[in-house]
Design brief:
Elements lengths: L11 H7 L4 H4 L24 H6 L16 H13 L5 E5 L2 H12 L5 E5 L4 H13 L3 E5 L4 H7 L4 E7 L11 H10 L3 E5 L4 H4 L9 E5 L13 E5 L1 H13 L6 H33 L4 E5 L9 H7 L6 E6 L4 H10 L4 E2 L9 E5 L16 E5 L5 H17 L1
Parallel strand pairs: 2-3, 2-4, 4-5, 5-6, 10-11
Antiparallel strand pairs: 1-7, 6-7, 8-9, 9-12, 11-12
Helix pairs in contact: 1-11, 4-11, 5-6, 5-10, 13-14
Bound molecules: pyridoxal-5'-phosphate.
Length: 403
């Protein structure tokens, strides 16, 4: 086998299969012990034959043994696979969670006295980085309306060093004009950090669309089985080197067992995303026709907010979308969620199983408003049969109507 995941002529589906399977790490076919997947390589200490070799290991390069904090082939294979899937990336740093990846990226590009602009639709723990960690380190965070590039530019000042985007917003699905916002940011010498968890590089080529650092919570689509926490940040050569150094300074390392699970998840990510997208789109269309529903927030659905930008910039979607009820109360919304039989009630998304949470953005927004009387839910559509899911939602609508 000589096919390479770096071969741009191969489609993403093929690259998902090839990525990270280095002969150095899996064995050369024919050699004893040659396998498909890199072994789970548990190591704190790497041993050297002599002092000269110990010293020679010191340069901080990828794919070189030195000490466990710099990883071993299982983690390197995953990082290499993610880099191969992100056009424009020179490397990928792995983190123990998506939040750790966002914190790592922001701590790489910001210094005390800097200002960070953050999209108002950002995931709540991401907002908390601005309100907590970054504030304590002398960085001020200001939030902006994700759908208003002019307001974004007006919010930039001399101290603004970076912007954090999350497109679409993982709760209320605002699609940002990443190329336009990135062009503005770059004109002002800022670094663009994009949380690309929703689309993954299969659905949105973050760096090609202007982002400087593409962050993902691998907990979602890459893991795909709700049994793993991990994050990643991919970037071009200079930022990649700085991300890696900062992560090593923070002492962050992921376990080889988790890396092996993530690699396993990655192999089927394309198929899962395609199925989840198709089921989500079918349900979103059906929900749009329901009298109980005021608005479906699903960028993949024609007519839904953000669809034009999605159609222009994205090549895929996923199973995560939201909808708002036509009136009703919080209690009715809760009754709907409680009545669902096939949807688990819980955080996270992107797993093989469907999940639901009530939509409660009003309290955390500062640059935009979400009407307090708009109740709705976020659905993460899994791999169940779509007709079963639709029937389940339909019977739960009766609970909503009964209040
Ligand atoms: C879940 C999530 C994160 C955080 O990832 P964890 O792995 O749970 O820390 C970040 N961004 C988005 C959009 C998410 O949905």
């Amino acid at each position: 086998m000589a096919g390479s995941a770096d071969d741009e002529r191969l489609s993403p589906a093929t690259r998902l299969v090839l990525a990270g399977r280095h002969a150095d790490w899996t064995g050369t076919p024919g050699a004893p012990g040659a396998v498909v997947n890199p072994a789970v390589w548990r190591a704190s200490t790497h041993l050297y034959p002599d002092v000269a070799a110990l010293h020679a290991g010191k340069p901080n390069e990828d794919g070189h043994f030195y000490y466990g904090r710099r990883g071993a082939p299982t983690q390197w294979a995953l990082a290499e696979a993610l880099t191969a899937l992100e056009p424009g990336a020179a490397g990928t740093v792995l983190y123990p969670s998506g939040v750790a990846a966002l914190a790592g990226a922001l701590l790489t590009v910001l210094r005390p006295g800097d200002v960070l602009l953050m999209t108002d639709n950002a995931y709540e723990p991401t907002r908390n980085l601005g309100r907590g960690l970054l504030r304590d380190f002398g960085v001020e965070t200001r939030w902006f309306d994700p759908l208003d590039p002019a307001a974004f530019e007006a919010a930039i000042c001399e101290k603004t060093r970076a912007v954090l985007l999350e497109s679409p917003g993982s709760l209320t699905m605002e699609v940002q004009d990443v190329p336009a916002l990135s062009a503005i940011a770059h004109r002002h010498g800022m670094v663009v950090v994009l949380d690309n968890t929703w689309a993954s590089p299969l659905g949105f080529r973050a760096l090609e669309h202007g982002a400087d650092i593409a962050v993902m919570s691998l907990t979602k689509h890459v893991g795909g089985h709700s049994d793993l926490m991990m994050g990643s940040a991919s970037a071009g050569p200079d930022l990649y080197r700085r991300l890696r150094l900062r992560s090593q300074q923070l002492g962050q390392v992921i376990s080889p067992d988790d890396a092996a699970l993530a690699l396993r998840g990655l192999r089927t990510m394309g198929l899962r995303l395609a199925q989840e997208t198709s089921s989500a789109l079918e349900l979103a269309k059906w929900l749009e026709s329901r009298p109980e529903v005021a608005q479906v927030l699903c960028p993949m659905l024609p007519g839904s907010p953000g669809h034009e930008l999605w159609a222009r910039d994205f090549s895929g979607g996923c199973g995560l979308f939201s909808f708002v009820f036509a009136g009703g109360s919080a209690a009715q919304c809760d009754a709907f969620v409680d009545a669902l039989q096939l949807f688990g009630i819980g955080y996270s998304w992107g797993g093989f199983e469907s999940l639901v949470t009530p939509l409660e953005p009003a309290a955390i927004r500062t640059a935009t408003t979400w009407p307090k009387d708009h109740f709705g839910v976020r659905l993460s559509i899994g791999l169940e049969d779509v007709a079963d899911l639709r029937a389940d939602i339909e019977q739960a609508m009766a609970a909503w109507r009964a209040g």
